[in-house]
Amino acid sequence: MADKKADQFYTRPPKLGKWEGFKIFLWNPETSQFLGRTGSSWGKILLFYLIFYAVLVGFFAAMLAVFYQTLDDTKPKWQGDNSLIGSNPGLGFRPMPPDSNVESTLIWYKTGEPKNVQYWIDELDKFLEPYQQQTTSENVQNCDNRDKPDEGKFCDFKVTNAIAPCNKDYGYGFGSKEGGGPCIFLKLNKIFGWVPDYYTNATAPSNMPKHLRDHIAKEEMTGQHHVVWVDCEGENPADVENIGPIYYFPQRGFKAKYFPFTNVKGYVSPLVAVHFEKPTRGVLINIECKAWARNIHHDRVDRRGSVHFELMVD
User: Fold this and answer.
1) Model confidence at 254: pLDDT above 60
2) How far is CA 280 from CA 119, 144, 166, 171, 244, in A?
3) How far apart are CA 157 and CA 258, in angstroms?
4) How many helices (H) and strands (E) in the chain?
5) Beta 253-255 vs 285-292: how paired, if at all?
6) Peptide linkage before 260 cis (omega within 30 of 0)
7) Where do the H-state alpha helices sit in the chain?
8) pLDDT on residue 19
9) Confidence class for position 261, pLDDT limits 50, 70, 90
10) Fewest CB atoms less than 10 Å from the CB: which of 71, 92, 172, 217?
11) pLDDT of residue 91
12) What's the average model confidence in pLDDT over 194-223?
């Protein structure tokens, strides 16, 4: 038998061409291998990865479930100064310029071109649509004779003839051929749980415009001073000269009954419609509007507590 083993020699496998070698790699009939592995080898690999990814998905799902247990659908986990947006609200304005000028804050229109004017009117129609639909919300409450809504409710904000000429019937002031100017709507950014600290005549700061201080003193006499006040003015002396008379509807700020914001379903932010009655035609006017409360701080660089836009009426 030893002589028989000694007579056995290693025989070199036959040399195959590229195509024949590829076919053998795909399926080797002698060893029953597919792509270099037998059926049992492929089965073990597939079973391993199936178990591996099942465990991975299960672990991820478990961690996600634990994470969601720490969240509340109705209020943010981090509030006030601990949140990303902080506790100093800013102001926003509408209507906004076209999307083609997304970084622009210029409101520019020609009263003699109906198509140009119609864009701004349509933008305000879309913006004010939720205010027309709020009456269908089960959480809305009429607060004409009360200071606060009930728990889980919010006070309605009516866009009615009381804000004329800043309503749809008057085209929001756009397109007036008698020299009138447009209405710009301001709203305070929503911050969950934020409650304003209202100014009184005694606490009004020295940098507050005198006409606003006088207005607060007058309102305080009747107990109507619990308001986040709004004031708009030209940024530069030339802007002050060209801006013309300014009127605020339905009043000069946001009443206390709309605070705090608690994410009640259907809630809409209160608005102040600022009517620029007779801005100088054909002149670019830089305008800054500020919200005034003791816990609102102004920063022109970061636009905290204020908003800037330009107005040009041709």
Assistant:
1) yes
2) 21, 37, 19, 19, 7
3) 9
4) 6, 14
5) unpaired
6) yes
7) 2-6, 18-26, 39-68, 114-133, 210-220, 237-243
8) 75
9) very high
10) 71
11) 94
12) 95
* Averaged pLDDT, 197-218: 95
pTM of the model: 0.80
Where do we find the tokens 């619990």? 226
Burial 235-248 (b: 16+ CB within 10 A, else e): eeeebeebbbebeb
CATH superfamily, region 83-313 = Na, k-atpase alpha subunit. (2.60.40.1660)
6: Cα within 13 Å, side-chain hemisphere: 3
Enter the tokens of residue 12: 């070199």
Q: What percent of the chain has pLDDT over 70?
A: 93
Q: For residue 50, what are its two tokens?
A: 């199936």
Place of tokens 């590829």: 22
Which of 231, 289, 273, 250 lies closest to 127 in space, CA to CA? 273
Where are the domains positioned within the chain? Answer: 26-68, 83-313
Question: Using one digit for the tens of pLDDT, what is the confidence trace for 88-105?
Answer: 999 999 999 988 776 789
Rounded to whole angstroms, the Cα distance separating 104 from 97 reads: 7
Beta-carbon contacts of residue 164 (< 8 Å; ≥ 6 apart): 170, 249
Q: Phi/psi of residue 140, each to 5°?
A: -75, 145
Confidence check: pLDDT of 172 > 60 = yes
Residue 283 burial (CB < 10 Å; 0-12/13-18/19+)? middle
Two tokens, residue 35: 């792509």
